[in-house]
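Late entry, written up from scratch paper. The run itself happened at the end of the previous shift, but nothing got recorded in the book at the time, so transcribing now.
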Amino acid sequence: MPTDQTALSPATTADPALPSVADPRNPGMPLDLDWVRAVQANTSAIERRAATLPGRRSVKKEFQAAWLCRAISCIDLTTLAGDDTPGRVRRLCAKARQPVSPALLDALGLPGLTVGAVCVYHDMIETAVEALEGSGIPVAAVSTGFPAGLSPYPLRIAEIGESVTAGAQEIDIVISRRHVLTGDWQALYDEMAEMRSVCGTAHVKAILATGELGTLRNVARASLVCMMAGADFIKTSTGKESVNATLPVTLTMIRAIRDYHERTGIRVGYKPAGGISKAKDALNYLALMKDELGDRWLRPDLFRFGASSLLGDIERQLEHHVTGRYSAAWRHAMA
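Output as recorded:
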């Protein structure tokens, strides 16, 4: 965890209403295969670096509360279940509007705090858009044959268009893992570029399904190719793989983001998803983003958590900060 407790103070960083720098979308660039093939990943060094984070001294008291409030503002509150109903989605959207009890937010001085987005399947987009009207919270939709990405390609492309038409402002697409596993970078680039084009004004998050890519070198190269093709965000996982977001994968992906920014001047966002359910985990990810990319990547236009249960644990920690007592988890239901 970060040792500089002044780096994130409640007054300067927990308030999501503070003005942020408007960055242009990633326009992409021609595929540079020499750059892609030159990318390597020192797995042992990456794992050692990631392993140091949980053991470092944590931020405490009001500084920890500030970091946790920032984490809330970066959550894509998600429901991707086969038994989703309009009622469940409406309740989730109500939670997105008011993620923490008004009394706690007043005590923290953050009465307007909301999550970063609500993420749903295509069939629930219109319900979510209606429930979030006037809140400024965007709706994100998973697309392109989520989670496997193995439906016919024309149908995957059509699904993006249908989701944008339905009102989704962000599209989380899944790449074809086989292109990575076979080293067919041109095919991955072409696929990503077409999906980016069909998204139109909607921001596109490229889900790499990192747990299925085999090596960190593949993760790094896939990250770079997707950014070259115009991805606005790169995302670890669908949340449905056996291995989802991890700190070593995160370090690999955000260093690819850093390299891309250094060469092009374009900032690309990052979204870890799957398996992040504890407040202490969120602090680790935020600390790694700050260390590797800087404060600019600690805002919801460049960083998101794909999570739902994470919010409940953060609420419990914030209640303890304000009252000195922990509440039962059932008091912080998602929907």
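The longest helix spans residues 247-264.
(Scratch paper discarded after transcription.)
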